[in-house]
Amino acid sequence: MRRRDFFKVTAGLATVWPLVARAQQSAQMRRIAMLMNVAPADPEGQPAVALFEQALQQLGWIVGRNVQIDIRWGENDIDRDHKFATELVALAPDVIVASGTLSVTAVQHATRTLPIVFVRVSDPVGAGVVNALSRPGGMPQAL
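and the corresponding structure tokens:
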């Protein structure tokens, strides 16, 4: 093999290899757990989930193909939130999305290791969900 041909093959492999690796990684099914603070029939619940799925799809995450979403509806009931938070943590998701203060605190009590993304918490510092907005740092520690 000539030196020039060797460099062409090497350059071709260097170009194709990341694409092959990325294709193998995207074949892995990721799992997202969601704990919603509303009832399934709530006018805001289903549209919020649909919007979330649409945003994921725009980023290349297709439900059923490379991502699975497990949803529980806490309905702003503290007992349901704790039950469902424990259920969702047991599924070992890659990330948990929690909506509302009760849902977020229930998830925080169920796990300290899984990443939690939250929405609809009007005062996360005042509610004790994070230490500070600039450096959330997870669940606040007792003084």
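(Above: one complete record from the training split.) Residues 3-26 form the longest helix (24 residues).
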